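Running this now, will post back.
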Amino acid sequence: MRLLQYNSDGNFSLTEFFDNAIPEYAILSHRWGTEEATFEDLQKGIGRKKAGYEKIRFCGEQARGDGLKYFWVDTCCIDKSSSTELAEALNSMFRWYRNAARCYVYLFDVSAVKQKAGDTSTECTWESAFRDSEWFTRGWTLQELLAPRAVEFFSQQGKRLGDKEILGRQIQEVTGIPISALEGAPLSQFSIEERLSWAENRQTTRPEDKAYSLLGMFGIHLLPIYGEGKEHAFRRLKKEIQNSLTEAEQNPPDPQSRSCIQDLRITDPREDKKRIEDTKGGLLRESYRWILEHPDIQQWRDDKRSRLLWIKGDPGKGKTMLICGIIDELSPLTKLRDEEATTLLSYFFCQATDSRINNATAVLRGLIYLLVDQQPLLVSHVREKYDDAGKVLFEDANAWVALSEIFVSILQDPNLKSIYLIIDALDECEMNLYQLLDLINRTASISPRVKWIVSSRNQPDIESRLRLNDTQMRLRLELNEERVSRAVELFVNLKVSQLPLIADDSALQETVRGQIYAKASGTFLWAALVLKELESVESWDVLDVLQDMPPDLEPLYDRMLRQVEQLQRKDPEFCRLVLSTITLAYRPLHLLEVGALSDLPEKKSTNLDSVMKVINKCGSFLAVRANRAYFIHQSAKDFLLEKALDRVFPSGKAKVNYTMFLRSREVMSRTLRCDMYGLFAPGFPIGEVEPACPDPLAAVQYSCLYWIDHLLDCDRGHTTDELKDDGSVHRFLRASYIHWLEALSLLRSLPDGIVMIAKLENWLKADECHYLHAFIHDARRFVVYNRSVIEQAPLQSYCSALVFSPEKSLVRVAFEKCIPHWILQKPKVPANWNALLQTLEGHSRAVCSVAFSPDGKQVVSGSEDKTVRLWDAATGAPLQTLEGYSRAVCSVAFSPDGKLLQTLRVSSQWIADGTANILWLPSEYRPTCEAAWDKTLVLGHSSGNISFLQLKQGPKLIRRTRHKVAGIQGALTVAPL
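Update: finished.
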């Protein structure tokens, strides 16, 4: 690829780069004219008088102003006299535009000059000319619009008109191309017919180019044959497209892999990124460009020894948007945007206000999901464990252990070239943060091909765990105050120019910019919050409002809350109800859920528009995206909980939790019923279930998953009447328990229900509510016993689950009427639950040894089938299967801390640790049975001897004791001292 650059004498020169060494560059998109400066002209030093030369100069000056040394213009960077080079260029064009840092669209037929000087009524009419521009009618400009991540439009005078994001609506209306495609969605998400339709009304000078200009949009390589005609070129194009589809169809992901990926997905980080950018008003390249030029990030990118970069700074300094910008810059170089790339990029945004994505397990699920999405063959690493355990592998108490092993296995895959891993807001990871930091340290040292970027607030505990050395660096935003402040200034400049009520007053705009910049003190969030408030302020009030704005975030939040408290009539109370509910919610709430849980009047709570109006009156604490309410920033939630607790929770948090529990119970009682999705068939498999439209569970999803959590978060004094025999909880369970299980199955959350009902049983005092406790105990036995069938087919809650439960089961008695009428003769079953809590199925031969973890939450079993299996003790769900043993596993145990399975064992003539042989045994020491505890091994011999070996400090025979029996057979066990 040849690139242009300015010389010191003001002329241009061409430099050729190969793919692995191409620097950042800008690229020009334009309508060709009759006098273009060609490759030959530049080689000979002529062409300066041609009209097209000014476009080259424009592109070079614009690139230089944007800090880019190199740029590319199609008229003069390709030697069209070489058919080989021309063919390569045509097949590479889409990739070259996609990889460009900036794409400048020069519109020769759009003028940005006012028609009449000083006449505001005849302001520039470029918008009409923009819609009519020839650029939108040309074939080659279609890929030049879609491929680059940053497309900026300029008039014939070189004035910037806007970018692809700002002008997106107009572009969509002119071209008919969906907004999502303009915003960078993978083109493979759109059908072949739809992509072809985007080019139907476009023209090219040479007829064959109408087909050749579409190569990159379909990822197709085609040798150009000028003279073959448009129809023949399109036939070849469509044949290649069909061949690529046939190849994909011949190697589709198998159903088990699809299920594995679906169960792995807890969120799509790409959607989180888009939501965050939208919530914060869009991503502005000028605000993050400085970090791309920072020596630390350049060293991280270019130096193989630099494997971890930690970006740290105070709240509101723009860390998340910097991360978004870095992702945008890296994406075109990876499989996320370029299917031919060999580098993978995966990222994750932690968010403390969302329980789905505020823990280390979720981080790994998100990172692995994106890696597998780019390289589907990596799913094999996940399926090694998933095929035995199913979805519970990702959700139970042992999920972190399993996922971290899968993650390390993926990073060590010999077929991978290089991997970029990015985590934003480590400080918002509220569960297992230290384990995550340890894993980052460990994987950063695996290989120079694995590179990490993480961000967080300035927290000592994170600093103490991240081992910073010559391979790991930190970038402190406070030490880059000048650069951050400049980025804030650029952000403010753009956003002020977009304020509609002062658009015509340039002097006022300048004053507003200066005041916001001065008060922001380098804090993006402060500037963004103030600018949001100014959007609805009349021009004559703008300066007064700005004057009232206190500097720093905390006083600004206080002012926002005071404004809410000073609203008229009942609005302050409605806002308080909504703010308190969203603050205590375990995840962001859908607007329907906000209405259902927040104790608003019924007419407001059931109307989406009314709920939205209340949220809009809550200052700028909240933002709504895709009908879900989010805090504008974690610091906003922190303020309400730490600095405004008495104002938002005048009766205490426990009272709000109680209200959320009551409303959850009420809305579930009204909504839950038999066959909510109209499946009809009792055996309808969960894998084929699609939510009904409208979804009857939409307003109760949160309630189904968290009603017990809010009940347990109440003071016991609040729940005395609820948690008593024949109280509201008892009545709800007797009336709706089976329907709740159906709903949990439809929501793919039945294991969560088992955990919830067990928590409630443990929390209750049996002597205070004997009958309620008995019902909940029976309910737990019922769901544990029937978990498998209800998970597979939700309507089996009313069939198999009831029919095969004991006759005197309290759940069966309460819901006997729900058993389908077509079951005329019920099977004979025991009267009561027997001592058998559950049966763990999976071993193919006899089980030789079983052990509980020290905390009682997991069970491990060893079998004659030469496997070890790990189980969830509460639900019976399989967690993990260990294979590779050469004989029956006759002794299993946990380490004393319960975190690891005991790996010390005897394998034939050897003592092995895991699968590695570490000590050979003479024949007289070879045991008939053994037991282990930590690193102590007990061997029982046919001679009657017992040998104790301790291997903590290296192999050491402790003692031998002569037994008085003729020989030792069977099993041994060790009791820890």
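Residues 204-251 form one domain. More later if anyone needs it.
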